[in-house]
Fold each of these.
Amino acid sequence: MTALALARSQFAFTVAFHYIYPPLSIGLGLILVIMEGLYLRTGNPLYHQMTRFWVRIFGLIFAVGVATGVVMEFEFGTNWATYSRYVGDVFGSALASEGIFAFFLESGFLAILLFGWDKVSKRMHFLSTLLVAFGAHFSAVWITVANSWMQTPSGYHIVGEGLKARAEITSFWAMVFSPSSMDRLLHVYAAAWATGAWLVISVSSYYLLKKRHLDFAKASLKVGLAVAFVSAVGNMITGDISAKGVARNQPEKLAAMEGVFEPNAPADEHLFGWVRAGEERVRGVKAPIGGLLSWLVHGDRTAPVPGLKSFPADERPPVNVVFQAYHGMVAIGVFLFGLTLAGLFFLWRGTLAERRELLWVFVFAVLGPQIANQLGWITAEVGRQPWIVYKLLRTSAALSKTVQAGAILGSLIMFALIYLLLFAVFIYLLDHKIRQGPEEEDLVLPVGPSGMSDLLKGHRA
Amino acid sequence: MSLNVLWFILIGVLFIGYAILDGFDLGVGAWHLFVKEDEERRILLNAIGPVWDGNEVWLVTGGGALFAAFPEAYATVFSGFYIPFMLLLYALIFRAVAIEFRSKQPMHWWRQMWDVSFSVSSIVSAFLVGVALGNLIYGVPLAPDHEFAGTFLGMLHPYALLIGVTTVALFMMHGAIYVVLKTEGPLHEKFRGWVNSGIIFFIICYVAATVATLIYIPRVTSSMKEYPALFGVALLNMLAIANIPREVHHHEDLKAFLSSCAVITALLALFGLGIFPNLVISTPGPENSLTIMNAASSSRTLEIMGIIALIGVPVVLAYTASIHWIFRGKVKLTNSSY
């Protein structure tokens, strides 16, 4: 493999692994705010127990997220030095803002969230939870802004020529509000909420099936389903807005997502299929409504959608990967929407605990948002190829000049080994915590900041 | 003062913040295996438990600020120091997860495995940071297009290794004082003894490093020759070092810790004065060096970043201080401890 292919594999692998965790922190962060808010409002010890349990899970997730996140910031410089020189003036300020505004907030108040139960008042603790959740959401702003600038660059001008050329910022706010950033940010939020919600739903359903911690499980399930519903609706709306944005801003990407080849014709929507790039067509099943894609994009079934043939061959993304990733994501989104409605229906009828088949589906549905998140990012990033910064810098030109393929391969193998180990340990501990379940003693209300009620007990649960 | 100088200082401040704060975490890690009792090891972990994560953010933010303000330097250093930085990443990953995972299972082999990971990765992190600093003072070969032209083995020269060991010693002294500050009982007494070993270890390294620097890299003194008042920094550094054993002897642990913070600040300030106005010095071929002018972003970006720092840094300092205030005092193990 070439240094380029290796560097791309390394970035793809490390960022995909990292992205298991931040959506969970964002989604679970919101759920913690809801649970602890309910506790503060009602004083019901059940909500205290729920908050304590999910905070423990949150701590575990956050640790792996932090450990794998530092890698990303280093990799821009180590593997993509030419890219860093080119975009540093614009991209760097978003990254630095993330550190200053979001990471400090998150990590600082996380200390109180995890260890401050006896040190601060209930209100202060709730405020910390709120700030941690806010910090997680705020860090998503900056990283999505940075990535969106690579999709739809704005607020910059190019200075210098040839190898010396680089982008310089002209307007910070135009960079922050690039044409795609806010659409994509909202979609990231909706997806992250779903990721957190389905973790809660999955674990709660497992307890219901095993007839353990029933009160805890029912109450958690309700919160989970409520958040899942909001995010399912949110995903549909923000997904639609984002796709229309892609059609407007990156028509090659939309053509690849939908497998459209004809340059200037009304387009049908494929429900699923297989793209034969050589034959420039898709073999698959179309939606029964003709011109559905044209209608989805333009609100008009006869409006033309530019296909891949309208673009030079060396500016087209790999079609089938993008097509499959996008269709997979949408399919999972629709499936989760249906599951949420089913869950809410039986919850309303009061018979959800008896629907064992549905609960088993819920247990495994935790994978749904995770897979959809990965597929969504594959759509976004592979769909932008061959560019690293859309229409400005090619991925093939962005590599570090001094780094040897051997060094990248070596570090990639190390990352693979370390991350496999990390993932195994993470799953092992998560499973252990879930089996252990919520602590009975957390049902007793704490004494307050000076309370010594839970001093020194064996190893940390 | 130009924006470029301001950003040189601000990035310096971020890295000083990192060295002071994560320095004691790494130092505690370096001592970790010297302590044998499980409960005592838990106390060490919980002494840094609530703060290590926030402390590491100083490094992340420093890196981000370097990327934004001096992208050429960021790109050259990170791609040039590829292997040491990858090793640093692995060490930081292991350090982070070892703290989090270690006390979650009671088995002896499990805890021993993560204890070793925690300690080794802390030592390796401190050492690699030192090696990188050593190379930046010594100079690295750069090509005319600002790309790194050296090799990994070329970075492991005796001077860089000496600075690596000195950094480990510095953080061990700093970490030992922190443990004294945060513990009570037998562990406290044990560390009170070890602090002195830590101080001696550091002073030996410090003297060796200073002599080596003056002999082999005399240019570091040029800014002091130009502005003799800057010698005050070196003087302050020596006084702060001398003050540490004195405060330890008088059981003024907080003052000893603050002195240790002052030592770290002064050492990094000396480093900054030694390389200014360069960011990466090219040896041979000093004309290829990356300076605060030729490696910088546009003045517009430096301005925008200045506003971001103006809003962000006071807020960050305020809640960093309040978090450390909330978790002040001696460590007690509770059921939410590591």
Note: Residues 261 and 283 of chain B are 31 Å apart (CA to CA).
Amino acid sequence: MVMIDYELKKRVMDAHIHDALKYCYQCNRCTDVCPVADLAPNRYNPRNLILNSFLGLRENIFGGDDSFNIWGCTMCDTCDEICPQKIELTGVFTILKNMSIALGEGPEYYTIQASAIYDSGKAIPPQPAIERRREQLGLPKVETPNLEEVKTILNETKLNKIINK
Amino acid sequence: MAKVEEYKLFPGCTIGNRIPFIEASARKVFDKLGIKTSDAAFACCPDPVGFNSVDHTSWLAMGARNLTLAEAEGKDIVSLCNGCFQTLKLVNTELNHNEHEKEKINKILKGVGKEFKGSINVKHFVEVLHDNGLDKIKEFVTHDFSGLKVACHTGCHYNRPSEIVQTDDPMEPVKLRELVAATGATPIDYAEEMLCCGSGVGNAEEAPSMQLLANKFSSAVKAGADVFVVICPACFQQMDTNQKKAGTQSNNEFNIPILYLTELIALSFGMVPDELGLKFHRARLTEFLEKNGLK
């Protein structure tokens, strides 16, 4: 039996003013221009992902053996430009990625980077060797962001719970 | 929008804390052209590919916090990085156009005594250089780069989503080409100019990332490119560090120097490789420098 997840439907529909998503007529232009779908057509298909999202077919998106069906997106935004119905596909995919992370199904890279930002305020924390190189190049020191503020914000958004900090 | 003729410089984590030689070339070029900048204690933009995929609300809040630092001084931001540019521009636009989101984010920022107002603009350094004038660049060119064939690669987040970033044509951008031409070098046409470098998908899986890179490189080689010129540190790292691997995985051997636009401009202004830290590139520039009388 096919289960429809109305919460998923609502989340992706809400991402678009005037419900642009419901005007998708599956023309396949997104998949035509997608560089990843071109390389791996059986593993990543943006048209299919959009279809399953607005139908709320959660099981077709999450919980599979291969999360590449979501994470194959290289975020090039080409599909957004080409869509004749002006659907911001990348915005929908961001919602799916957020859900995938919350389910613990995302690639490790993403939570590791988020953790670095939580701890140091930077995706790439300062390193002594690079600090020396900056000095050699006559560059000023990188100013350290207010880490108290960063932590306060990210605890408030509950990022700490999402990435188990 | 802000009127003060000084920008807050946003180098970003990758340039600042990993490949600072790019920042060196940018600062030198800005100085020469009279583009004034000052620094601030910015945190990660945060990454539109990484952090936004983890939690959109956290991404908005952190981006908004950075924007408030520039707002406090009434200055626009100039970003040296496609990713930082796209994040800050998207966050600025989303919060300016969505009262509900703005209210939600400002409630979070209130906890750290800040408020997003939406009073400044965010610019990519290519826009700033282009607006400043191609003639201004030509004025300072002392090195002859005529005959140098350049494959331009803007990367994805400079010009898309075009409705929001409004920098250039989304599929046929011209500003980078015009800036390269202003140095005297020749931008060439190659079939895969608009192809993504593959950095994004590489966070999930290496093979497709290397395949995209190999396709891009093969196309540029076929068109006779001497160098790539890029404007994004994520693209730079992918193309500079991974070209060997992409070659091996696709039965090719790539050896193409990757120059940041500001490095090409700095060299055209007569600055020397040492002061720009060009030795820190992974894809060696020796042959390129010798051929062009720079060594």
Note: Chain B touches chain A through 62 residues (CB under 8 Å).
